[in-house]
Amino acid sequence: MIVHIIREGTLKVGSSKASPPADIVLSGLGIQPDHALFSVEKGSIFLEKVADGKVLLNGEPLTSKQQLDHNDRIMFGSNHLYVFQHPALKNANPGNYKVPVTYEMAQQEIAKNNGFDMSSKQSAEEMLLQEDLVDLIPAVEEANTISEELDKKVKFEIVVISPKARGLTHGRTEVCVKMRNLESGYEYIWTRDKFQRRKYLMQEMYQNFVEGEEWKLPDEKDPFTVAPNTEVQIGHVNIYLQSLSYLIELKDSLDVSDVKGKDVGIMDVEIIPCNSKGKELTEADDVFVDDPKDLISASVNFVVKIRSITGLPNMYTDVYCKYDMFLDAESTKTEVIPNTSNPEFKHRKNFSFNPATSQLVDYLSNGVLAVQVWGKYKFKEASQRQKNMNTKQMVMSETLAKGRDLNTNANKTSDPDKVALRFQLIALKKRQERLVVKLSQVQRCVQVAEEHKKVRIPTAVVKQVLNDQNPKRVESAINKIPQDDGAGVPSTDAPQSSMCTLM
């Protein structure tokens, strides 16, 4: 534990390069020669940052002179974390300082002020995410400081990505790191492990820089660079399959969403029931089923079509889609389309399941077909203005620009719940139409029976009217009602038969 005593007057915090020398000397990433000032005024102690010195007070950036309270958490630079102790304040109000201050608490505070939910009422998975965040925040801050010190023109941010946002049907929500090139604006999502491995190389580069040794590396070994031909996930589309579980065709234009939920394009997709040879079935074939369970042990065939995507950002090329249907061991990929923001894939693939299992039917009833959209960034040269700015200036310029655009640049985002509800409504509408048809057919049975003075309808006719999907066969069954000689006025001595009686 390191303790610094704050005495009367003014104390300067800074690096060993300060002139005149600092009263509290700190070393390491992000520490400026003249970093911050403590001042004692009438028994109260104040803290203010100097010039470009980065200081966090209780997890928030210090922007002006502030009076300190007992147990305040102070972060200088990237990794110098201190707790301010003022015995007089503690003795005056001991009840205000019962909660002990820990390193984990301070890091959670920083995470909360960065917009992450750090509440204690969380599930086991959320608690694991919280631990990952606490571990990753100082590492990302360190990487950003190294980037500024070495002028690498790269910025790192923490992103929390759900499985659906990654275009997956299952898995756990992950804490990842987004690496953004400040010159091109291109973004790359790294896993937590990949970032940590690269951070070790960044630390080695910085150490060589500090010691005056050769620190620059070729692009293929530089942890701050990404190969130009690296594939990136542009976005994803979640196709809810519930309508298919009733053998209802799906033809729709769906939003392509990136990991933030922002819409980046529109995909035209179709999923259509077909026969075993791939011939598409239409409304006239009337293959609709009232209950998805009716598909179990039957032959289920359908075709997936991905026609095109329109409106993708112009920064991408070599675009393709891939997806996994049910228990596919290998992903299905479309053709790769270069040099257009409106790729036409004209993709078609038949799927056949004979017999359909209960697991397949459950997948169709409740599952999602996640289609991922991948591509590569086009080469983009930095502007002359960007070339004349260093990393710190670019970060500051970007921060100011975000502040100006905060209320004017709202991006359209997709609501997953609304998308799911829309697919459910399609299936519900079709089922409603089917029930209306069945009701009218039953009413027709009653009408024919009354016209021919029949008081009973054979059970076989009723079953065919309710279950047969073919209108011609249903009408043929109804036409048998007048021909049933045993459906007249029954006598008390007549033998009982399997009939439905009209009341």
Question: How do the strands and helices of this protein lay out in sequence?
Answer:
Blueprint: E1 10-14, E2 24-25, E3 36-41, E4 44-49, E5 55-57, E6 60-61, E7 66-67, E8 73-76, E9 80-83, H1 87-92, H2 103-113, H3 124-150, E10 154-161, E11 174-181, E12 187-190, H4 192-210, E13 231-240, E14 250-257, E15 263-273, E16 300-310, E17 316-323, E18 332-333, E19 344-353, H5 358-366, E20 368-377, H6 384-387, H7 391-405, H8 416-451, E21 456-458, H9 459-467, H10 471-478, E22 499-501
Parallel strand pairs: 1-2
Antiparallel strand pairs: 1-3, 3-4, 4-7, 5-6, 5-8, 8-9, 10-11, 11-12, 13-20, 14-15, 15-16, 16-19, 17-18, 17-20, 21-22
Task: Outline the structure in words.
The chain has 503 residues and is α+β, with helices and mostly antiparallel strands. 29% of the residues lie in helices and 26% in strands. It has ten helices and 22 strands. A five-stranded mixed sheet has the order 2-1-3-4-7, with no helix packed on it. Strands 6-5-8-9 form a four-stranded antiparallel sheet, covered by helices on one side. Strands 13-20-17-18 form a four-stranded antiparallel sheet. Strand 17 and strand 18 (332-333) form a beta hairpin. The protein is elongated and about 115 Å long.
Give a quick precis of the structure:
The protein has 503 residues and is of the alpha+beta class. The chain contains ten helices and 22 strands.
